[in-house]
Amino acid sequence: MLGTVNRVLIAVVGVVLLAVGGAVLAVGLGASAPSWWLHQGPHDVLLTTAERTRWRADAWWWPTVIALLALVVLLTLWWLTAVLRRRRLGELLVDTGDGAGALLRGRALEGVLAGEAQRLDGVAHAHVALKGRREAPEARVRLVLEPHVDPATALDHLTAQALTHARDSAALAALPAEVRMKGAGHKAERVA
Amino acid sequence: MSEPGGLQGSTLPVLEKPTQEDRPGAAGPADHRFWSARRVPAGVVAVLLLVVAAAFLYDVVAVRAHRSAMAWRTGLARQLAERPLDDIWVLLGAGVAAALGLWLIVLAVTPGLRAVLPMRRTHPDVRAGLDRDAAALVLRDRAMEVAGVQSVRVRAGRRKADVRAIAHFRDLDDVHADLDAVLTDAIRGLGLVRPLSLSVHVRRPGKKG
Counting CB atoms within 10 angstroms of each CB, which of A10, A60, B161, B209 has the fewest? Predict the structure, then answer.
């Protein structure tokens, strides 16, 4: 979700930069521009005073400029907070079966998941963060693997044990997980 | 006529095994690459946009409130009105802007996370990726167990694992064959969607080649 927003906004900024830069570069290097274009030839200036102040006397000009700038400021503020904030699930809803439901601290489940993952063979360190909604949580798992274990085996164990146990104990229908596996640091090479 | 049929019958199960292993991965929701959220470029672009827009907003409003414009804005307006398009600085700036724009577009449409190799799914809900460094470390660990291998350097690419071993005893060809077998097995153990192809080089210590 955030990835899509980031990519769309980055692409928009990129297209604007490429269009403006490319147009100035093309006309500046002697390409002919269409008659409605701002620049007509390489000796044109970037923006004449007349062009800049063209609508200044109109009543709508300054309110429009200010509104647009304010919109950009608000949008970028929202974007920046979305990028900087690491959303984590505070608590999740456990269906107890009697129609009441219970709340489970996200940190508690994260801790249990990470603890169980860490006890798996060949896992040097595990970190778990829960995201998503409280009825439909998602797990982000980071494992640091020791080199002696096969990653496929470690993933099998993680899926069959830690993730399944967490899903069952919180009575979740599903617990989608994204797992990243990294390597633990080097061991010394064998010396003959 | 029956012999080729019999031969086919005996080879089929062997051929089928890997495809059967592949199938759960292919059946699950697409095992594509991991896509980066592009947090860092997004943060940088957002900060720069915010600074520029806020500065303009502040100054425009200040001028509306009958205060004089700040020096940078009058300077900018004068520069814009004086610099012709074929001015070297204008061309340079336009080139930089165009290149930056192109780069941002590339960032927006490429997945990134080239260091992460997607792994086969063990469960439809579980998506896993293995760092190339971790893959290299595992392969190196396996290669070190082969008799005669003194040291190994493994570089895991996105498609290929490049293994360079130094063997201080045993026949080089034997070591090579052992490494091939062990590492092929180890690559299967990585559980990747697209198993790395293997390239093994073995040499004696102190000699190049």
Answer: B209
Chain A: nearest CA to B12, how far in angstroms? 25
A191 in a domain, yes or no? no
Domain that holds residue B100: 39-109
Partner A contacted by B190 (CB < 8 A):
yes
ipTM of the complex: 0.80
Q: If residue A46 lies in a helix (H) or strand (E), which one and from where to where? A: none
Q: What angle do CA B37, B129, A3 make, to 5 degrees?
A: 10
Contact A80 B46 (CB under 8 A): yes
pTM of the entire predicted model: 0.76
Assess B33–A contact: CB distance below 8 Å, yes or no. no
How do the pLDDT tens digits run along chain B, 209 residues long?
A: 344 443 443 333 333 333 334 444 444 445 678 888 899 999 999 999 999 999 999 999 998 888 888 888 889 988 888 888 888 898 999 999 999 999 999 999 998 888 899 998 888 888 899 999 889 988 988 888 888 888 899 998 888 999 999 888 888 888 889 899 999 989 988 888 888 899 998 888 875 54
Query: Of B76, B109, B142, which closes a domain?
Result: B109
A102-105 vs A91-94, strand pairing mode: antiparallel
CB contact under 8 A, A72 and B81: no
- CA–CA separation, A112 vs A162, rounded Å? 8
Cβ within 8 Å, pair B82-A45 = yes
Give the DSSP H or E segment for B61: helix B39-64
